[in-house]
């Protein structure tokens, strides 16, 4: 894959053209759309090949869901460099909104995606407004606390959340209810969500907001001097990221047909998972989170299936160890390492 | 009205008991090239930060194109046309040189390719066109300084503030940056520079103001200012004066 976004002009060509040096190519949103379409096609073939294997379909559904969620987290966490550990809250908001509307008023989950997104965005902006004053690890810790507070609130307000008992959603199969007897439709929905997340992330990254988020990430003072309203850029990135995360929560709720605090507000399995996947795949890159999910989710379900019974918690140990290794030796994740190798290869040839 | 692009009126900034900038006033006309000199700790960078909005003033006002901008935040001042560089270059190292300049160019352009074209244009102006495609983290110090200038120019700024852009550069690099500043000034850009190197100030042959302990102690041509006993005393101590 050609990931070198901008290629240096050979020295001999510098100065070509009337207006000055020929401009290096800049990756556009249209280019990314082509790549995303290719990715979509590839996954469509995968789904077709494994259409009657429920185990593989289940794993694919989770992989696509978490790839999408990590891609969404990456908008503010990667591009914008704001290491949120509180995205589980926006996920839970999406899940509870959809679950409630479906449970009490039989609203189609397709429709309740919208209020779920809006609510997740509003809460995200409201809690980020004060916490964005904190930098780096302090911001991360504040957002971690947010997840814990949400856990307590979700357990306490049982009229909305079903409390610790959770909410079991009635099985009424049908497209309108987003409830299916086979796993294939769920896997298709998750691929759709993944493609939407990628398109949104690409649109952000390849436009003004993406450049501004990266500038804010790298140097806030330089960003301000370039006319960037730092807080507004962070809040916009957060709102978009949280809205997508809310969709993910809603889809997760309908897939499991069960919502309770230990499931949706689980720090290891939800809140931290988004950034763990992004870190391993390549934080701040468009396709890094997807790569990370393709590695982590199947690995995790394999570990759980083979060793989970004999050594409880081994999957967390191995994931933790993996994260340490990546932090030490592959700071830019798999994607960053591939990109570096490609640049060296190109550099060696020219 | 006055016809000044930028006016600083009785500007004061205190940090606790320290008065970093003390009742400083001066004006800039369109196309001026003003050098600010002074010993270390004289308040030059604080002065810049007050003009560009990094700090609010303790007293006094900053007037830009006839409007009081003292209460505006830095990004709002940049939008109005105040571009600046930092003493310690703030290069966005993991982006390419072109992308760094594009961050500035997006201020007045929403379209990706327009921003990229304009960014390329300003990189050519500062002599970095051939370096557009490489990661900005691999640029040399003098190239980073040029890049900061390019990012400010990409804002379409009408006043450019340069904070010690020559510091740490070798003689040849200094001369080329002097040429660049002169060229930009010749094209009508109003420029304010903080400079330590008195040779540079002489080379500009334009107005100089001198700060010492936060106060403005001299204002005039380089020859006049650099022979002023107060200035000599500030730089070299009393016995030389």
TrEMBL record, chain B:
Q: Can you give the residue ranges of the ABC transporter domain?
A: 6-238
The record's annotation in InterPro entries points to: AAA+_ATPase (IPR003593), ABC_AA/LPS_Transport (IPR051120), ABC_transporter-like_ATP-bd (IPR003439), BCA_ABC_TP_C (IPR032823), P-loop_NTPase (IPR027417)
Entry GO CC: plasma membrane
The entry's keywords:
ATP-binding, Nucleotide-binding, Transport
Molecular functions per Gene Ontology: ATP binding; ATP hydrolysis activity; L-isoleucine transmembrane transporter activity; L-phenylalanine transmembrane transporter activity; L-valine transmembrane transporter activity
User: Which biological process annotations from GO are given for this protein?
Assistant: D-alanine transmembrane transport; L-alanine transport; L-isoleucine import across plasma membrane; L-valine import across plasma membrane
Q: Which SUPFAM superfamilies match?
A: P-loop containing nucleoside triphosphate hydrolases
The question of whether ATP-binding is a record keyword is answered with yes
Q: Which PANTHER family match?
A: AMINO ACID ABC TRANSPORTER ATP-BINDING PROTEIN, CONSERVED COMPONENT OF ABC TRANSPORTER FOR NATURAL AMINO ACIDS-RELATED
What's the protein name?
A: ABC transporter ATP-binding protein
